[in-house]
Amino acid sequence: LARARATTRIRQAKRTRARREVAGRKDASARRLGDWLAQQPEVAEVLHPARPGSPGHAHWAALCTQAAGLVSVRLRVGLGMDQANRLVDALSRFRIGFSWGGPVSLAVPYDLSRMRQAGLSGLASGALIRFSTGLECVEDLLADLAQAFETLRKE
Fold first, then answer.
1. pLDDT of 14 over the 60 cut
2. Which secondary-structure segment (H or E) carries 148?
3. Phi and psi dihedrals of 14, rounded to 5?
4. How many C-beta atoms surround the C-beta of residue 73 within 10 A?
């Protein structure tokens, strides 16, 4: 019985280590995407807990060293859901979906004004796109974003 437990614990440790490696890779990809997205003129705000200035960053920094592979962008004023939808539709590496944390990168546009409860002041409104990084090469994801933004700029 002791040998079986030891074997099980070794397998669990390997899976845990693999999960941490995947989580670290997804976090690194999300940070790279966030840095790139922050330089785009269409983006008003990049939301990722590891980014200074993001809501909750100080709390995150006090407790964490890694974040999930999620990064969100709020589009600048004047760009609405039509542009957010076109941008997401122009992506080829990112799929449209809500299943965060999987091996495939995903993107979903949100209309913040429809998600906020009436009477709450000080909350951002407008179009937001949430990206979940998968296991694809981050350079491929960045190239996909670049061509999608370029498509948006041409319209």
1. yes
2. helix 138-154
3. -65, -45
4. 26
Give the position of tokens 């983006």. Answer: 43
Give 144-155 pLDDT, tens digit per residue: 999 999 999 997
Prediction pTM value: 0.82
Across 115-135, b (16+ Cβ under 10 Å) vs e yields eeeeeeeeeeebbbbbbbbbe
Phi-psi sector, 56: left (phi>0), alpha (psi -120 to 50), beta:
left
Q: For residues 70 and 35, give the distance between their C-alpha atoms in angstroms, rounded to a whole number.
A: 13
Half-sphere exposure of 103 (CA within 13 A, CB side): 1
Query: Is 96:107 a contact under the CB 8 Å cutoff?
Result: yes
Distances (CA, A) of 124 to 57, 78, 106, 116, 117: 17, 14, 23, 9, 12
